[in-house]
Design goal:
Elements lengths: L8 E2 L8 E7 L8 E9 L5 E8 L7 E9 L4 E2 L3 E5 L4 E9 L5 E8 L7 E8 L10 E4 L4 E3 L4 E2 L5 E7 L7 E2 L4 E8 L4 E8 L5 E10 L2 E8 L1 E2 L7 E7 L10 E6 L6 E4 L5 E6 L8 E6 L8 E6 L5 E8 L5 E7 L4 E7 L1 H4 L8
Antiparallel strand pairs: 1-2, 2-29, 3-4, 4-5, 5-6, 5-7, 8-9, 9-10, 10-11, 12-14, 13-14, 14-16, 15-20, 16-17, 18-19, 19-21, 21-22, 23-24, 24-25, 25-26, 27-28, 28-29
C-alpha cells in the first residue's frame, strides 16, 4: 500500500457512540517499522496534527520525527512526512503543540551517545499552522534532558513545558537520580528557562501536570526502576504551590505503573483526566480515569484498549468541540492509534465506579 493512499480504519463505537478508535499508521508506512511515541495537537484551523518518532528501531541512528495532518474538511490523514532529523545522531520523542499566539512548537530529543542519558532537547517552530518549519535550535543543553509531554498554559499566561532528566546510562533501568523537570517560557528573552524538578526515592520521569488553581499544580510521573515485574510500582505524584518553580518530593500515588508513560489533563468542565496502564507489570490495559473533585477521588475508570497487544505512551488533548483525543502506540511500538471519546463515555454505565 502506498503511503499517500493510507486511510484510517474506524471501528464501531463501543458505547452509545461515545468511543471511536482508529489505527493510524503501522509497519507498512514507509517511515520504518518503529513508531513511538506519538503526540497530537489541535491547530487553529480545526485540523489535527500528529507526530511520532520513527525509523528502524529505538536505538537506530537513521531516525526522525514524522508529522501527519488530519484535514477537518476531508476527514483524512495525510501521509507522514519527515519534519526533524539529524544526519549524525538519533532523533527521538517528538512533541507538537500550538501556543495561544498561534506559534506551533515541535520539541524533540537528540541522542548524542549510546543511551538516552546523553540526550538534549531541540525544537522547531511553524508560523503557518504546521505547513513549514524553522531550522532546529537548542532548548536545553543539559545532558540527559528529554521531553515527552505537551506544554500547559498557566493562568498567569506563562507556558510550562514538562521535561525530565534521565541519568544512569542504562537502557534497562531508570536510575533513582532521574527526575521530572520543567522549563518556563521567557518571552522577553525568547527562550525556555529551567524551573523546578521532582525528586523521588526510586526516581521518576516524564511528568504530566495540570494547574488546579492559580499557582497550584499537580503532576503525575512515570516511576523509575527497572522493567521487570514488581509489586510496589506506582505512578509518582508531586505538587507545586508556586506555579511550577518548586515541587514537593514525589510520592507513590494510588495508581499502578509498569514503568510506562502517563498523561494528565484538565478538561473544559474542570474535571481531571488521567491516562495510564492499569497494571504494575504490563502495558495493558490502557485506562482512563476521571476525577470531578480536583484529584481527591477518582470514581470513574474505563479501559481504552486491552489485549492482545501492548498499549503505551498515551497523549491526550481536548478539542474545542469537547471531544477527548488520545494517541498511543501498540504492537511493540509499530502502530500509532487514535481514540476519540467524551467525558460522558467515561462516566457511562459500564465504567468501573468505586
Amino acid at each position: 500500500m502506498r503511503a499517500a493512499l493510507i486511510l484510517a480504519f474506524w471501528l464501531v463505537p463501543a458505547f452509545g457512540g461515545g468511543l471511536v478508535k482508529e489505527r493510524l499508521f503501522g509497519p507498512e508506512v514507509a517511515t520504518g517499522p518503529y513508531k513511538h511515541p506519538a503526540s497530537i495537537t489541535e491547530l487553529a484551523d480545526g485540523d489535527l496534527f500528529v507526530v511520532y518518532y520513527g525509523g528502524s528501531g529505538e536505538y537506530a541512528v537513521k531516525t526522525g520525527v514524522f508529522g501527519s495532518r488530519h484535514d477537518h474538511a476531508t476527514k483524512r490523514w495525510s501521509a507522514p512526512k519527515l519534519i526533524a532529523s539529524d544526519p549524525f545522531r538519533s532523533v527521538g520523542n517528538g512533541v507538537v503543540w500550538q501556543a495561544p499566539d498561534g506559534l506551533v512548537w515541535l520539541f524533540y530529543v537528540v541522542r548524542w551517545g549510546e543511551t538516552w542519558s546523553t540526550s538534549r532537547i531541540q525544537a522547531k517552530v511553524s508560523r503557518d499552522n504546521a505547513q513549514t518549519w524553522s531550522e532546529s535550535f537548542v532548548v536545553s543543553e543539559r545532558e540527559g534532558m528529554m521531553v515527552r509531554g505537551r506544554p500547559i498554559v498557566l493562568q498567569s499566561g506563562e507556558y510550562l513545558l514538562p521535561a525530565y532528566y534521565e541519568t544512569g546510562f542504562d537502557p534497562e533501568l531508570v536510575a533513582p537520580e532521574s527526575g521530572g523537570w520543567f522549563l518556563r517560557w521567557d518571552p522577553k528573552r525568547a527562550r525556555w528557562i529551567e524551573a523546578g524538578g521532582i525528586r523521588s526515592a526510586k526516581g521518576n520521569i516524564q511528568p504530566a501536570a495540570v494547574e488546579i488553581s492559580p499557582g497550584r499544580l499537580i503532576a503525575y510521573c512515570r516511576r523509575g526502576g527497572g522493567y521487570g515485574p514488581v509489586t510496589d510500582g506506582y505512578i509518582v505524584r508531586s505538587e507545586s504551590s508556586d506555579g511550577g518553580r518548586t515541587w514537593s518530593d514525589g510520592r507513590d500515588s494510588q495508581f499502578p505503573n509498569p514503568n510506562a508513560a502517563v498523561d494528565f489533563l484538565k478538561l473544559q468542565s474542570g474535571s481531571l483526566l488521567l491516562v495510564y496502564n492499569n497494571s504494575m507489570t504490563d502495558r495493558d490495559p490502557l485506562t482512563v480515569a476521571l476525577s470531578a473533585d480536583q484529584d481527591r477521588t477518582w470514581p470513574w475508570k474505563r479501559n481504552l484498549a486491552t489485549g492482545p497487544h501492548d498499549y503505551a505512551y498515551p497523549m491526550a488533548i481536548q478539542t474545542r468541540d469537547g471531544k477527548i483525543h488520545v494517541v498511543y502506540t501498540s504492537e511493540q511500538r509499530t502502530v500509532v492509534n487514535h481514540a476519540i471519546f467524551d467525558e460522558d463515555w467515561i462516566r457511562g454505565a459500564n465504567a468501573h465506579k468505586r
